[in-house]
Fold this protein.
Amino acid sequence: MIDRFSLSVAIRHLLYYKGQTVLTMGVVAVSVTLIIFLGALIGGLQKRLISSVTGAIPHVVIRQPERQPVAVWDVASVPAGQVYLGERIKLQQQKLKIEDWQTWLQRLPSYSDNIRAVSPVVEGQAFLTRNEKRKAVSVVGMFPELHNGVVDIQSKLVRGRFFGLNGGEAVIGFKLADEFALRLGDKIRVLGPEGNAATYTVAGIFDTGFNLVDSSTIYITLRDAQSLFGVGSAVTSIGLKLRRIFEAEDLAQKIAQQVPYETNSWMKDNQQLLSGLRAQSQSSNLILVFTTIAAGFGIASIMITSVVTRLREIGILKAIGATNRQILQIFTLEGTLLAFLGAVAGAVQGIALSLALYRIRTTVSATGRTAEVFPFDLTPELVIRAVVIAVIVGLIASWYPAWRASRVNAIEVIRGV
Amino acid sequence: MQQSGGDIVCRLEHVDKVYEGAVPTPALLDINLQVQRGEFLVVLGASGSGKTTLLNIIGLLDTPTSGKVWIAERNAEQMDEEERAALRSRYMGFVFQFHYLLPEFTVLENALLPCKIAGKQVEEQNRELVKELLHRVGLGDRLNYRPSQLSGGQQQRVAIVRALANNPELVLADEPTGNLDSKNGFAVFEMMRFMNRQTGTAFVVVTHDERLAQEADRVVVLEDGRIVKDMLQRPAQTHEL
Ligand SMILES: Nc1ncnc2c1ncn2[C@@H]1O[C@H](COP(=O)(O)OP(=O)(O)OP(=O)(O)O)[C@@H](O)[C@H]1O
Ligand SMILES: [Mg+2]
């Protein structure tokens, strides 16, 4: 319970010794500013890095596992004397495909609230030819409205359209368009792996900022891709986009137990990147820990000075009936209030600084697309965490000075020792 | 005169106090003392005779080496820190030689401190009383001044009102006039005498000034830690206002 008397004395002290109050608040404010600024910056940089890796790909991919020929005796234990002879049929270059994708399209979203988008695709390598020019590209057949949840094309369109793509139409990146001098309405010819060819009309040109997508990916309708790659009514994979991307591996493993296919997560493919990010987070945490400790010592030393200069008052308060607990509270409340006020000031500064720097943008693409120079990831959690940590540090840092104050011997003070 | 137990605000029995140290210093020897309700008692004695030590023991700030202390009919030995603090804030008032007002509080707030310590309710109940007391000591127009804006005598008067703020049974004053010139000192002393008569609070006042002792109901003289004289000059006024 907060003692009303202690609180009123604490507040009065803070108001009366303004210089000291402002000084202590300043110490805390600077550290909280640093914590928020650094936290937001590192978070933002990491987010940018991760999104450059995962932005254009699904977080989890479901596909048919490649079958390996297996010997009979590896599958079933065969009693001696009952060995059947058979001919091992050479598996044809089989198409890895998912026939019952429609079922999974319906079921998957209910597996986890983390699933943000589900997109069945038919994907394959092909050649784009125009006049004498030829380039290996990856062709993605999909439903634009679903696939936009995996990679955002619609809002990155420079020209034309993406949603409502018709059969016979294709959407391509601006780099590919530049390379082949393509404009809306131009025809492109795509050579499939088995020598079959198809012609599409360019219906949209986009600039996603992902080099691979912008320079060598062609989006067509699912049906067009099914016929180009000869997979009938099947798809080659189902891509999932998640809300909390770091749970991708867990979710992939969970889904693997529920679907008769293989799952793979972006995390598995990028383990090195992830351990790099982890190391970065740890070193930034270390900086934050030391900042916090420094602020704690700042509060503690100012509080100790404050206790020493007010020994008389403490003695008098005790003599006229203040309990040890009340004295303890006066100083812990003071330290905590100082830390809280400083933290709020620091939070305002940190937010202002981050937002100001976040505004700075540069042009990053030939199409005039801009991006922020400092990619701050300023979340309410970060700010709240910084303030809460500061308050806890204030409480801890003022504990010893407060305890000292509560042990003051009233007799000695009154005698003027 | 005063008989029933309820009329005794504090009682000391065979109290000894020895300050331990390289050389143990006896400060009080076999002190037996009862203070009646409403009594105005002056303690006289040379420097080092043990007056402050005596007040500290009565005020539950210090503990005797041996002997028994009763405050409000309760044995001081059996009290814990919280109880001592509660008695100090509700049952007793203190006036120190140096006024020791808190600089960051106003006159009224300083006078109300013991009530603030006791809680919001007590503060609300006693606020009017304290204002009234400040009026009576001539500080009615200084309620919102800071202590630094008052003279020494005025500060001591605030300290006296602070000692009385919780309607205590007993006020302990250690050389309250020691830091003032004789004119102001006398005025402050008169002030306490007046309050004693008005409120019926018992006072134990330590002083060097024998002139002031004339005004007391009872004078106790200490010499080297012993009570050498205990004179009743007039009966305490168990007064009603
Ligand atoms: N903390 C202490 N340690 C050791 N001896 C002490 C201590 N406090 C007081 N004394 C001794 O106890 C004796 C009584 O001291 P006390 O302060 O009670 O005297 P006093 O009558 O109040 O004197 P004064 O009029 O100067 O205030 C003195 O001899 C003093 O030296
Ligand atoms: Mg003394």
In short: The pocket of adenosine-5'-triphosphate (ligand 1) is lined by residues B 19, 21, 25, 27, 45, 47-53 (CB under 6 Å). The radius of gyration of chain A is 33 Å. The longest helix of chain A spans residues 271-309.
